[in-house]
Amino acid sequence: MSAVETESNPIEDCLERIAAVHGDPTDLVYERLFTKHPEMRELFLLDRDNSVKGNMLAQVIECFLDFTGEKHYATSLIATEKINHDQIGVPPETFETFFVTIIDTFRDILGDSWTERDETEWNRLLVGLNEAVAQQ
Ligand code: HEM
């Protein structure tokens, strides 16, 4: 475990390191998303100022922090969005890939400073969130 990590929320700690290294990761997250799912790019055609992309990622990150904190709303918000997205052309199996896309991007951004604890905590979040949403 490196010296920078605290006993606070390891996900929050990791997000702060990502912001320190790269600032806003929105550009890299959607670059990876559209490489994996080029068919999803056209759904954002009207989002010329990237505000929807930015807002969507921000809301997903808020869900990560809620789920690793108070667990007030993340599970129900994600379950609702999964249904909404199916209606706008995002199949559930593609919807679910967004979390992995985000984590893969974060791992890339931090490179060598991505720790074993980061790997463990993000995987724990991914498994926990998918299980909780599946039970909704
Ligand atoms: C590959 C996966 C995903 C794709 C392709 C996708 C696509 C989109 C698109 C095209 C919109 C704009 C809809 C519109 O114009 O009305 C949108 C909005 C939104 N998405 Fe996703 N989405 C994905 C995953 C997720 C996930 C996992 C969440 C979880 C919470 C989420 C939450 C939202 C929210 C909250 C908005 C509204 C943002 C706003 O209007 O500012 N999305 N999504």
- Classified in CATH, the superfamily is Globins
Here the CATH topology equals Globin-like
Largest pleated sheet:
none
Bound molecules: protoporphyrin IX containing FE
By DSSP (H or I, 4+ residues per run), the number of helices equals 7
Mean of all residue-level pLDDT scores:
94
Q: How many individual β-strands?
A: 0
Which percent band covers the strand fraction?
A: under 5%
Instruction: Give the CATH architecture.
Output: Orthogonal Bundle
- Structural class category: mainly alpha
User: According to CATH, what is the class?
Assistant: Mainly Alpha
- How far apart are the first and last residues' alpha carbons, in Å? 35 Å
What is the CA-atom radius of gyration, in angstroms?
Answer: 15 Å
Order of helices and strands: HHHHHHH
Helicity, in percent? 55-70%
**Tertiary shape:** globular
Low-confidence stretches: none
Structure summarized in a few sentences:
By secondary structure, the protein is mostly helical.
What this model shows, in words?
The chain is an all-alpha fold and 136 residues long. The chain has a single domain, classed as Globin-like (Orthogonal Bundle), CATH 1.10.490. The chain has 7 helices and no strands. α2 crosses α6, α3 packs antiparallel against α4 and α4 packs across α7. The longest helix has 19 residues. It is globular and about 40 Å long. The N and C termini lie far apart (35 Å). Protoporphyrin IX containing FE (HEM) binds next to α3, α4, α5 and α6.
